[in-house]
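Re: beginner question about structure tokens

> Can someone show what the tokenized structure looks like for a real chain? I only ever see the sequence side.

Sure, here's an example I had lying around. Input first:
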Amino acid sequence: MLTIALPNKGSLSDGAVRLFEDAGFHCRRYGRELALRDSENNAEFIFLRPRDIAIYVGNGTLDIGITGRDLAQDSGAPVSEMLPLKFGRSAFHYAAPVDSSLLPDDFSGLRIATSYPGLVHADLTRRRVDARVVRLDGAVEISIRLGVADVIADVVQTGRTLDQAGLKIIGEPIFKSEAVLIAQQPEAAERPDVKLVMDRLNGIVVAREYVMVEYDVESAHLDRACAITPGIESPTVAPLSKSDWVAVKAMARRRDVNPIMDNLAAIGAKGIIVTDIRTCRL
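And the corresponding structure tokens:
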């Protein structure tokens, strides 16, 4: 039976459960269950702290898992990233008081508070900066005010928490993160059960980036229409009962859908419909 680690709380947990459910697995909890068995798919889901998932997967206790790329890297566990999942995106930054003129290369001799000491040590080593890393489990933003640190390093999503603490981001992101599927070794992808999971999850991830565009257009404008909606290989084109008109169907990137509709309308396309795609294999 394939053992799969999922985050037990937070946005990573919600996104991971939704992803697996959309992929046809059964892992939704109705309480605080720590383990759920999906007999139909011969899988068992184990719910763990996101920070611990890489440890369990890295030592071979569990086969695969979903966690943040930042958490996997910070853990130092021997795991391989198998698939980026396009949710739970965040950036890891240094921050200091708003009136500070510090830059990351100026941190020598300073104290840096963080919940991600592995990432910070790696960045300081790369910069050849000798600073003291103060590990905290949370509430990193207040550490400067309390005199524990001179600078912090933390995950930043909206920046609102930094603003409230009177802090500002310094420099470029140290690390960019998102939810990822991990395994102990890349060779895990050769296992049929792991490959099935990866194919299903990737089908959902890709489908979320695309929509299906359908419309009718005069045959005389078909070449222009196909240039607007080229699809993956090429659009599907079918004749209509109305002479000199065709129906066209093509996948398009979700982010481009509004300009696509504008351009199709400009060449006289009618009945333009955009629908979601639940899953796909390209």
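Each token stands for a local structural state, so reading them left to right follows the chain. The first strand starts at residue 2 and ends at 7.
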